[in-house]
Amino acid sequence: MKRVMKWAGGLLVICILLFLGIIVVLPMVLDPNDYKDKISDLLYEQSGFRLEIPGDITLHISPRLDVLFSLGQVRVLAAPGLSETPLLSSEEARVELSLFPLLKEKRLVVQGVQLHGVYCYLIRDKSGRGNWEIVQSSAPAASSPSPKKKKEASVPVPQGQAGEKAKKVPTLELGTFDLSRVTVRYEDQQAAKIFELKDFSVQTGHVLDGQSFHLQSAFTLISSGKNNTTLFVESSIDSDITVKFSEQTVQLDNLSLENSIKAFGVQGAKISLEGNSFLDLAKKNISLKGVRLNSGDFSIQLNAEVTNYQEPHFKGTLLIPEFSLREFLRTNKLSQPNWKNDSALQQLGFSCAFAGNMKKIDVSAIDLLLDGAHGTGSFVLTDLQHPSYDFKMHLDKLDVDSYGTVVQQSSVVAGAVKKEKEQKPAMAQGKVSGGGGKKVSVNVPIKETPSLQPVFPVKSLRKLQFNLDLGVDSLKIKGAALTHVELQASGREGQLELNPLRAQLYSGNVAAQVKLDVTGELPKLTVTGDVAQVQVGPLLMDMTGKEEVTGTAVLALQVGTNGNVKEQLIRNSNGTVKLALENGVVKKLHILDVVRQAKALYEQKPMVQAAKDEPTGFARINANGVVSNGVFHNKDLKAESDLMKVTGSGSVDFVNEYVDYVLKISILRSLDRDDKSGKTDYSKFIVPYRIQGEFSNIKEEADVVGLFKAGATTLLMGELQKQLDKKNKSGDSKQDGKKSSTQDLLQQGLKGLFGN
User: Fold this and answer.
1) Where is the composition biased (Basic and acidic residues) (predicted)?
2) What's the rounded Cα separation, in Å, for the pair 210 and 603?
């Protein structure tokens, strides 16, 4: 027995010495550098790429079966004829692993991996060929698997054996991983685009199954080229990572991503991403907790859960804390309009909850803060392939005018515009009838060429499916103040409808319905509206700064049109309009003053000046008419006041922006005489009165010839008859004084008519 033990012990010692001798002698006898050419030839046979290994290959095996493999400089040459720069090059590669745990415990232990100075250069020439593509004739095809191997691969494995094999799958234990100075450059000469990933690096701690390790990474991303967006991004990543290979889960804690971006007009914006996430590859679930995207005062906070990310269902919350969007744009040198109001976009905040899948997204509990206005609402998106939107929002107030912009015009552009206007014939000459048959020249501005810009985006509207429910307690738009605004709109298959639109304004209210049909060749628009008891004066003052018309307005209209250009829509408009104005004043209408001026013009006397500005006031104005091809025709205009009664007819041409009205004015009572103003008694006349001209240059004119030829002739004959009666009473009817007596009678008659 002792002899057996001695023999066994001696044999064991011999085996150990032999094993140690092999470990020591093998690296000395076997030099991997002797096989560089064979390795290069093998790679060429399998892939068609040439491999150059100018650096040294080192292989070292320790008595504990720790293997150290290092590789110096390596170059993989690109396909010939495209680029002299290697397809791939590396300065140093180093791998350390332990074989003993693999033999004993089926556990692969990689103690460390290092890779430094890697440069990958990919280029596609103008013909579309890439340097990574090998011509079939120049490279042998990779040997395909033999039929025997295919057959072996297709043999089914019993379930029990498969389970045993699954249990025997080696686990991975990775030591430090160090990757640095990695650059990947892609150049597309065909598309004139260049992308480059520079200075990419990754460092990790000891990677163990189920244990946390730290990861650091950094890179620079650059894009350039004639047809490419200029982009420069510097990024760094820090995170604690836990990987469970058996459960196929990855957990990222304390994730920190720092970015500096120069792109899309952004100059050096700092953006950071923080949070925690969990990825379950087996169940295909993703969890995001406390994720925060920050850039200066701007922040987005997100919590979300995604189940089965192949067919995702998700839910979560989103929060944007209050910040100044205007200041954010300015700080990051992003372009923004020149706002009329300094308060625009100074305050913005948003929060919501969301849930959904790839068929429906439901955004609920929307809470919006915008420059002091607060709103709540919801949003639903269904059928992402053919989207349909349902949006509800209620705001306590909204000042639309705060977001008006000012278009700044450079001195060069302003000078060019001014010069162009000066070169054009500024005015066209026209004539209107004056008193006494005189013609007065007026200047009519030449109209600019109408814009052909489409009013409605027809293609987009045909696809649009939506429901909109909007309410605003207090709204300011174009200076007008509205309250209790209600707006509901919908769109389906090219049929859009706004019904109703209701609001209260200036002691009255307005209601409207709008229908738009874009299914045909030309859009069809129908507008129905009612305005009741609206105070026009304050409305115009707020909107224009001028109170040109005052009174209480009532309006009813129903107009339809078709077209997709502004001029076309106006020209094709047809419908009916009913208008009434109570206790109103039209400040640009000076009927009495114009009549006095017409009288002076007829008498060829200096124009008299009114004692004060006397706009024309009415107790009520009524006008009903039809709109035909963009022209409003009215035949029953009626207006009354304590001084006059007006009837008339006319038209308003919205196509050519021209007004033409003929009025008949009856003065209801005598007016007090005044030497300065020339007021007198016109109560016995019906004054023909005309209003005409372009919207920007409306003229008022009393028809002096018609007034005094048609109406004054009768009065003059009456005065002459009075003078004849006086002469007859005096008995003076001598034949030799006939001529002078007739002249005297005419003069006395005119004096009696005009009060002079």
Assistant:
1) 724-741
2) 111
Report how far Cα 695 is from the mean position of its chain's Cα atoms: 34
pLDDT of residue 68: 80
Cα 701 to Cα 355, 489, 597, 627, distances in angstroms? 69, 47, 9, 25
* Phi/psi at 536 (5° precision): -70, -40
Report residue 618's pLDDT band, with 50, 70 and 90 as the boundaries. Answer: confident
Give the pLDDT of residue 719. 52
CA distances from 575 to 527, 556, 607, 626 (A): 9, 11, 43, 6
pLDDT score of 754: 45
Half-sphere exposure of 706 (CA within 13 A, CB side): 15
Asked if 483 and 475 touch (Cβ cutoff 8 Å), the reply is yes
Q: Is the pLDDT of residue 139 over 70?
A: no
- Sign for the CA dihedral angle at 322, 325, 327, 331 comes to positive
Compute CA distances 4 → 1, 568, 690, whole Å: 5, 115, 140
Confidence check: pLDDT of 169 > 60: no
Angstrom distances, CA of residue 640 to CA of 64, 222, 548, 615: 116, 77, 19, 14
Query: What Rg, from alpha-carbon coordinates, does the chain have?
Result: 46
- Three-state secondary structure along 575-608? EEEEEEEEEEEECCCCHHHHHHHHHHHHCCCCCC
End-to-end CA, the chain = 165
Position with higher pLDDT, 741 vs 451: 451
Within 13 Å and on the Cβ side, how many CA atoms surround 103?
7
User: Has residue 564 got a pLDDT over 70?
Assistant: yes
Q: Is pLDDT of 684 > 70?
A: no
683 touches 652 (CB < 8 A): no
Report d(CA 25, CA 12) in Å as an integer: 19
Closest-CA residue to 542 (of 587, 480, 477): 480
- Which of 23, 199, 15 shows the shortest CA–CA distance to 119? 199
Structure-token pair, residue 41:
């030839």
- Asked if the model's pLDDT at residue 612 lies above 60, the reply is no
Taking residue 340's Cβ as centre, other Cβ atoms within 10 Å add up to: 12
Q: Give start and end residues of each alpha helix (H) in 667-711.
A: 704-706
Query: For residues 701 and 601, is the Cβ–Cβ distance under 8 A?
Result: no
Q: Is the pLDDT of residue 343 over 90?
A: no
Q: What is the pLDDT of residues 312-339, one digit of tens each?
A: 999 999 999 999 999 998 888 888 888 8
Distance, CA of 482 to CA of 473 (rounded, Å): 8
SS3 category, 331: helix
The pLDDT of residue 640 = 86
Specify the higher pLDDT residue, 514 or 716: 514
DSSP string, 522-575: S-EEEEEEEEEEEEHHHHHHHHHS---EEEEEEEEEEEEEE-SBHHHHHHT-EE
Amino acid in position 191: A
CA atoms within 13 A on the CB side of 698: 16
Length of the chain: 756
Considering only CA atoms, which of 368, 588, 373, 617 is closest in space to residue 476? 373
DSSP assignment of 644-675 equals: EEEEEEEEEETTTTEEEEEEEEEE-S----BT
Q: Residue 653: is its pLDDT beyond 60?
A: yes
Find the range with the poorest average confidence among 110-124, 361-375, 388-402.
Answer: 110-124
Spatial contact of 251 and 218, defined as CB atoms under 8 Å apart: no
pLDDT averaged over the chain?
79
Sign of CA pseudo-dihedral 345, 349, 352, 358 = positive
- Rounded Cα distance between 295 and 198, Å, is 24
Q: Encode pLDDT of 259-294 as tens digits.
A: 998 887 777 788 999 999 999 999 999 999 999 999
